[in-house]
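--- STAGE predict ---
source: upstream dedup step, 1 unique chain passed
mode: sequence only
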Amino acid sequence: MMHKIDWAALGKETTQMLSELIQIDTTNPPGNEDKAIEYLQEKLAREGIASEVFEKERGRANLIARLQGKRPGKRLLLLSHVDVVPVPDPKKWTYPPFSGAIAEGYVWGRGALDMKNITAVHYTVFSLFKRMNIDFAGELIFAATADEEKGSNYGAEWLAKTHPEKLRADWCLTEGGGMPLQIGPKTFYTIESVEKGLWWFKVRVKGASGHGSLPHPDNALAKAAYIIDRVSNYTFPKRIAPAVREFILKAGDALGPEIKKLALVLVDESQEVDLSLLPQDSPISATLLNALVRTTISPTMIHAGVKENVIPDSCEFVLDCRLVPGYTQQKVRETVLELADRYKNDIEIETIQQHDVSESPIDDPFYRLIEQTVREELFGVETIPIMLTGATDSRFVRELGTKAYGFCPLSTKMSLVDREKLIHNDNERIDIESLELGVRVLSKIALKALEARL
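--- STAGE serialize ---
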């Protein structure tokens, strides 16, 4: 039956659906995801598929639909979000950001890459099972959620806390991977299996006020500057996650013997390596490699003072900490206090937002199934696991026991660097070839995972 599936037609259908989804403005804030959810619910109803909508607040809608197999088996969740980030200046766009224009071989608009494209691909894969009356085992779940771009308080996080049974699955496919990465002579497709932990915290430094013409050593701003300088220049010890180890070693092998030597040192937690030795044309930056192998801290905000000639008696600054697996928030706190040195008794630390490291194993059968399908469908390419330094909704389903992987393949029409420049940026767009490719590869992954009989 596989040869009867018209992938080109499904690609065109997905292209049109993405265009229509983009035309529904779900900028977050404020969100208004209910309009996109209504659109999806109506489409599902026309396919004869029932769905449920859940809202924490009016207008912040989440949708879940399920297809039950004829035999016992695994549960596979297709997870995406329908909210998008704001557009600062629509005049900078070639085509209006909410036009969903299909032009020059692309679908243009906010959400084309993050991530209404995957919502459209997931919908096509999900509806295919219903249309073809496929005999499969287990359960296929389609979830389109709200508020991912602002932390998921109205979306996947809330759903996982209040309706965990609706999201719980054995395996999940979501965003975060599928980018083609050219490393030396080889093309790798990324599979996201781990995300760094996050701790945003405020440091409040206490001092004494005074006249600006009479400097004294208890200046809160000066003390904060001292602490910020020490924290931002501190190098945390390396902690190498299994996925990061495989990523670095595969990349090093593809780049030749000299870089492979660097890679072997880089994955050795007992040794440091000078990343400036990387070639200038390296496809993987020293900045990214440093973030993959260790916990990092970046100062991002600061506030002090009320007037030009008044020494501030307090100063607040914000630190963005991203933790690798095996490194705790408590250890970071202790390190910050040590770096505060003689001022450690003059500071208070307040958590703004935090979440733990989120990880799924790369030796799981579903991960291997993704790898196998990529090799079969994309001749000559390899897969490579990747750790995100940011975060997606996968962390919430992983907390429910689901093994989640970020993967939806994109074509090689654009480089990884060029695509990354478009995400959350002007002229966001996706090539039409990527939509057909995503439908074909994800359909075949789902068919195998759910033991479909064709």
